[in-house]
Amino acid sequence: MSAHERGPVSEAPRIRVAVVFGGRSTEHAISCVSAGSVLGVLDRNRYDVVPIGITAEGRWVLAGDDPSRLAIAGTELPSVDPTGAALVLAGDPTVKELVSLDVANVPPALGSVDVVFPLLHGPYGEDGTIQGLLELAGVPYVGSGVFASAAAMDKHHMKKLLAAAGLDVPRYVMVRAGEKVPPDVTDLDLPLFVKPARGGSSIGISRVDDRSLLDDALAEAHRHDPKALVEEAVSGREVECGVLVDADGVPRASVPAEIRVTGPQPFYDFEAKYLGDTTEFDIPPAIDDGVIARVQQSAVAAFQALDCEGLARVDFFVCDDGRVVVNEINTMPGFTPSSMFPRMWAASGVDYAALVDRLVADAIRRGTGLR
Question: What is the assigned CATH class of domain 172-232?
Answer without folding.
Answer: alpha beta
